[in-house]
């Protein structure tokens, strides 16, 4: 295994002030923190998958299959809370941003390493707070992850701690965003001009702005909920003279930009993987940057499309629908550029490439089905039905999830210094992909037929689609198990990896695998002709 | 479309036109782009094309594939808007029906006081539904009519309208999650000939009253309480939910908070009526204020008397 000058050790084996576990959970090394996030998020993701599996099993047949309605309602609530706040929102930035961002810009670490460690600790604290709010008190909440008023105020009293936990998680997100912003502005190596930044870094940059500017709304909501719950000021609860629609506005003013926090870094990872495996310059570098920033900006202004049937004014609905269609355009531009990058490339079809191509496919379905939801007339019919569930799983699971798997298979040799078994990795991908399509595609049909979402039980006419969907969930989980077993085994026993197994051009491929503690022996300098996608 | 109407409501055509246009564009893009992508992967595979040709981009292409999607999205926006716009302008002569949504059922009240738990409607007459949510958010959704509107507690001017155009029975769901029995909160729309509807509506006996003839007052009371959803928050077996249990409550002395003062009251007819019609006046000690809304206008004196008879049986 390659080693470097610093203590003769890489970041995995390096021993600092503390030994063992303490050396990890107190480490300020960006790569160790990235791995801490990877393990915490993987744990939460697995929990969320098991809950999802239980839900799909319950829906295998009408009537009670394995659980009572109350249990089902809690299961989909906890599934949503875990998957959104603890998995996909931190997701790629916290894991691969931490692991790769400083190396990609030629820096030794992020700008504020201690603050970075604090972010992870806040994440863990937030996870425990939310889980405590879910598990203790008067039973698990059954409100859905949206906590819509006034139902969420009527059932149990754990609303306040749950939002407080979400706020702590949000604070972790804000600090990570701030850290990345300063890092990208201040720590680029010599010659790393803005127009030479890898696109993954650009998407992290756009994401960081959203994290910084949108997340505080959670704090505002928390204060208002506290005012109402503790002092009885009527803000959201109509019984006290409040307005439940105001709650929906505040919720989505954060939670819609959060969707772009989830998807932008995923798009960035794909923009790294496609050129590497095509061995070709990315098509439309500047267009991809412009579309990233356009999504980050317009993404703030479309939250109302979650509320077309809620009772907003007609004018508001008109504008939100129009802006929603506008925000679709930069996403389309990205897809066109990715596909064009393949043109006249020399394509090396490997596991990360399979994930990237299937990402483009499921992301197109997710995005195009979003047009149905963005148009007013069609949204009225399919809003709050299984169609919406299919749509956002195609985006956040098909989009962000597939990109996450693409990224882990892409950077795995760099992170662990070992290569996974490629045949098993490809098998895992295929099974997972087939399972995914079988799981979510029938939900589009069910929604068009009129099956509302969050239904514990359903009428016989919806049975067929649900059987196929449940069957798909079993296939998907089989694929997931294959992928995880292969990766876990390979992290310890895989064949040692080269520094640059995929022939990438970004800076992380110039350092040994795994990287040394301080990343670079000497600060790298980018020449006039160097660039992230210059394969000449 | 020929002149014979085959659609369930007046909105079906506008909504379905938008569906067809948007889905057609979606499928053309999805199939086209996927085919091109797979073709590139095949054609420019490493084995077939060992040396890549470096191309950094094309401003012309970027402009083209910005403008074309822009025009297409504006087209889709237009059809979405066109199908939706009439949904917010009910005709002045529309028949009005008040819909009460509560955990977990719908009830419908007609102008002449006729009540029903199924929505009976005459064919070819515009109907305006005035939506009243009694507790939490609900959403009235009739898939066959392509209509949906959230029912927001406390919201004024909460309505939807449509014109049924085909006789038949249609499903009506609650689409906004509302708790334990959300998936059982559905009923049916029965669209009938105008003459049949007029005969039906002329019979103004309320649901509860028509049952009372064959049942004891206590049984009627229980049925009313089930219908209006009392047991979502109050049990009859002593278990504590967000509201106090009804077990053994009749004649008991209860500590309540009135304003800021605690006082003792006996649970009698007067107290029960006040708890139903002005639920936040006296709050049972240890429970939260503001969780229950008044049932004013929802229950008749007879209904309340029946409820009291039922509560007396819960020893």
Automatic annotation (TrEMBL), chain A:
<feature type="transmembrane region" description="Helical">
    <location>
        <begin position="282"/>
        <end position="303"/>
    </location>
</feature>
<comment type="similarity">
    <text>Belongs to the heme-copper respiratory oxidase family.</text>
</comment>
<feature type="transmembrane region" description="Helical">
    <location>
        <begin position="318"/>
        <end position="340"/>
    </location>
</feature>
<feature type="transmembrane region" description="Helical">
    <location>
        <begin position="467"/>
        <end position="488"/>
    </location>
</feature>
<dbReference type="GO" id="GO:0022904">
    <property type="term" value="P:respiratory electron transport chain"/>
</dbReference>
<feature type="transmembrane region" description="Helical">
    <location>
        <begin position="35"/>
        <end position="55"/>
    </location>
</feature>
<feature type="transmembrane region" description="Helical">
    <location>
        <begin position="392"/>
        <end position="412"/>
    </location>
</feature>
<dbReference type="InterPro" id="IPR000883">
    <property type="entry name" value="Cyt_C_Oxase_1"/>
</dbReference>
<dbReference type="GO" id="GO:0020037">
    <property type="term" value="F:heme binding"/>
</dbReference>
<dbReference type="GO" id="GO:0015990">
    <property type="term" value="P:electron transport coupled proton transport"/>
</dbReference>
<feature type="transmembrane region" description="Helical">
    <location>
        <begin position="424"/>
        <end position="447"/>
    </location>
</feature>
<keyword id="KW-0679">Respiratory chain</keyword>
<dbReference type="InterPro" id="IPR023616">
    <property type="entry name" value="Cyt_c_oxase-like_su1_dom"/>
</dbReference>
<feature type="transmembrane region" description="Helical">
    <location>
        <begin position="247"/>
        <end position="270"/>
    </location>
</feature>
<dbReference type="GO" id="GO:0016020">
    <property type="term" value="C:membrane"/>
</dbReference>
<feature type="transmembrane region" description="Helical">
    <location>
        <begin position="202"/>
        <end position="227"/>
    </location>
</feature>
<keyword id="KW-0813">Transport</keyword>
<keyword id="KW-0349">Heme</keyword>
<protein>
    <submittedName>
        <fullName>Cytochrome c oxidase subunit I</fullName>
    </submittedName>
</protein>
<feature type="transmembrane region" description="Helical">
    <location>
        <begin position="159"/>
        <end position="182"/>
    </location>
</feature>
<keyword id="KW-0472">Membrane</keyword>
<keyword id="KW-0479">Metal-binding</keyword>
Automatic annotation (TrEMBL), chain B:
<feature type="domain" description="Cytochrome c">
    <location>
        <begin position="216"/>
        <end position="315"/>
    </location>
</feature>
<dbReference type="InterPro" id="IPR045187">
    <property type="entry name" value="CcO_II"/>
</dbReference>
<keyword id="KW-0408">Iron</keyword>
<protein>
    <recommendedName>
        <fullName>Cytochrome c oxidase subunit 2</fullName>
        <ecNumber>7.1.1.9</ecNumber>
    </recommendedName>
</protein>
<comment type="similarity">
    <text>Belongs to the cytochrome c oxidase subunit 2 family.</text>
</comment>
<dbReference type="InterPro" id="IPR002429">
    <property type="entry name" value="CcO_II-like_C"/>
</dbReference>
<dbReference type="Pfam" id="PF00034">
    <property type="entry name" value="Cytochrom_C"/>
</dbReference>
<dbReference type="InterPro" id="IPR036909">
    <property type="entry name" value="Cyt_c-like_dom_sf"/>
</dbReference>
<keyword id="KW-0679">Respiratory chain</keyword>
<dbReference type="InterPro" id="IPR008972">
    <property type="entry name" value="Cupredoxin"/>
</dbReference>
<keyword id="KW-1133">Transmembrane helix</keyword>
<keyword id="KW-0479">Metal-binding</keyword>
<feature type="transmembrane region" description="Helical">
    <location>
        <begin position="20"/>
        <end position="42"/>
    </location>
</feature>
<dbReference type="InterPro" id="IPR011759">
    <property type="entry name" value="Cyt_c_oxidase_su2_TM_dom"/>
</dbReference>
<dbReference type="GO" id="GO:0005507">
    <property type="term" value="F:copper ion binding"/>
</dbReference>
<keyword id="KW-0472">Membrane</keyword>
<dbReference type="Pfam" id="PF02790">
    <property type="entry name" value="COX2_TM"/>
</dbReference>
<dbReference type="GO" id="GO:0042773">
    <property type="term" value="P:ATP synthesis coupled electron transport"/>
</dbReference>
<keyword id="KW-0186">Copper</keyword>
<keyword id="KW-0249">Electron transport</keyword>
<dbReference type="Pfam" id="PF00116">
    <property type="entry name" value="COX2"/>
</dbReference>
<dbReference type="InterPro" id="IPR001505">
    <property type="entry name" value="Copper_CuA"/>
</dbReference>
């Amino acid at each position: 295994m390659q080693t470097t000058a610093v203590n003769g050790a890489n970041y995995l084996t390096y021993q600092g002030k503390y030994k063992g576990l303490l050396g990890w959970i107190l480490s300020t090394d960006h790569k160790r923190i990235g791995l801490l996030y990877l393990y915490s998020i993987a744990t939460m993701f697995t929990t969320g998958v098991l809950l999802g599996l239980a839900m799909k099993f319950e829906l295998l047949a009408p009537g009670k299959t394995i659980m009572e309605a109350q249990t089902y309602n809690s299961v989909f609530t906890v599934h949503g809370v875990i998957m959104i706040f603890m998995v996909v929102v931190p997701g790629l930035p916290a894991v691969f941003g931490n692991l790769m961002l400083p190396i990609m810009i030629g820096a030794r670490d992020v700008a504020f390493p201690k603050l970075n460690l604090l972010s992870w600790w806040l994440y863990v604290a937030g996870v425990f707070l939310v889980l405590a709010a879910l598990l203790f008190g008067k039973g698990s909440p059954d409100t859905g992850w949206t906590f819509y008023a006034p139902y969420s105020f009527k059932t149990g009293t754990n609303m306040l701690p749950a939002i407080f936990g979400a706020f702590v998680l949000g604070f972790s997100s804000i600090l990570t965003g701030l850290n990345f912003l300063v890092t990208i502005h201040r720590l680029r190596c010599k010659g790393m001009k803005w127009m030479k930044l890898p696109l993954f870094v650009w998407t992290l940059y756009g994401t960081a702005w959203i994290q910084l500017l949108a997340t505080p709304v959670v704090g505002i909501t928390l204060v208002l909920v506290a005012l109402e719950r503790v002092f009885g000021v009527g803000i959201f609860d109509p019984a006290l003279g409040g307005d439940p629609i105001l709650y929906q506005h505040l919720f989505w003013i954060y939670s819609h930009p959060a969707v772009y926090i989830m998807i932008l870094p995923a798009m960035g990872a794909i923009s790294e993987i496609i050129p590497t495996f095509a061995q070709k310059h990315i098509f439309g570098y500047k267009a991809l940057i412009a579309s990233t920033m356009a999504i980050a900006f317009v993404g703030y202004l479309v939250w109302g499309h979650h509320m077309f049937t809620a009772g907003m004014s007609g004018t508001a609905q008109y504008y939100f629908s129009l802006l929603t269609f506008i925000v679709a355009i930069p996403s389309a531009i990205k897809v066109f550029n990715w596909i064009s990058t393949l043109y006249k490339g020399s394509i090396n079809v490997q596991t990360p490439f399979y994930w990237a191509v299937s990402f483009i496919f499921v992301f197109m379905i997710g995005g195009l089905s979003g047009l149905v939801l963005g148009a007013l007339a069609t949204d009225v019919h399919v809003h709050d039905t299984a169609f919406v569930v299919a749509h956002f799983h195609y985006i956040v699971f098909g989009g962000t999830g597939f990109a996450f798997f693409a990224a882990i298979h892409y950077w795995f040799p760099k992170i662990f210094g070992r290569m996974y078994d490629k045949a098993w990795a490809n098998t895992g991908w295929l099974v997972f992909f087939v399972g995914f399509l079988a799981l979510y595609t029938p939900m589009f049909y069910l929604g068009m037929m009129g099956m509302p979402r969050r239904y514990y039980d359903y009428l016989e006419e919806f049975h067929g689609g649900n059987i196929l969907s449940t069957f798909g969930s079993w296939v998907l989980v089989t694929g997931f198990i294959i992928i995880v077993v292969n990766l876990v085994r390979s992290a310890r026993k895989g064949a040692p990896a080269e520094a640059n197994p995929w022939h990438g051009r970004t800076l992380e491929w110039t350092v040994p695998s795994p990287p040394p503690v301080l990343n670079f022996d000497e600060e790298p300098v980018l020449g006039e002709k160097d660039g992230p996608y210059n394969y000449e | 479309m020929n002149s014979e109407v085959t659609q369930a409501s007046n909105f079906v055509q506008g909504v379905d036109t938008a569906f067809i246009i948007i889905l057609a564009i979606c499928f053309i893009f999805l199939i086209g782009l996927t085919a091109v992508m797979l073709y590139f992967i095949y054609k420019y595979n490493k084995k077939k094309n060992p040396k890549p040709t470096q191309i950094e981009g094309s401003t012309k292409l970027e402009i083209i594939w910005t403008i074309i999607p822009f025009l297409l999205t504006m087209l889709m926006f237009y059809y979405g808007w066109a199908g939706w716009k009439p949904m917010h302008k009910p005709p002045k002569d529309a028949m009005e029906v008040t819909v009460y949504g509560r955990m977990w059922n719908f009830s419908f009240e007609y102008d002449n006081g006729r009540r029903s738990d199924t929505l009976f409607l005459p064919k070819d007459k515009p109907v305006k539904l005035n939506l009243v949510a009694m507790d939490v958010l609900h959403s009235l959704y009739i898939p066959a009519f392509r209509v949906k509107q959230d029912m927001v507690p406390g919201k004024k001017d909460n309505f939807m309208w449509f014109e049924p155009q085909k006789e038949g029975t249609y499903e009506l769901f609650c689409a906004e999650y509302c708790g334990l029995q959300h998936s059982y909160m559905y009923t049916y729309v029965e669209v009938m000939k105008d003459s049949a509807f007029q005969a039906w509506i002329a019979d103004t006996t309320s649901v509860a009253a028509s049952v009372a003839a064959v049942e004891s007052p206590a049984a009627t009371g229980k049925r009313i309480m089930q219908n209006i959803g009392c047991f979502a928050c109050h049990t009859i077996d002593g278990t504590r939910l967000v509201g106090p249990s009804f077990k053994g409550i009749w004649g008991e002395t209860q500590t309540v908070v009135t304003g800021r003062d605690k006082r003792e009251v006996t649970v009698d007819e007067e107290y029960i009526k006040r708890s139903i019609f002005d639920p936040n006046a006296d709050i049972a000690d240890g429970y939260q204020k503001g969780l229950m809304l008044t049932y004013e206008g929802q229950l008749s004196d007879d209904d309340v008397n029946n409820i009291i008879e039922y509560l007396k049986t819960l020893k």
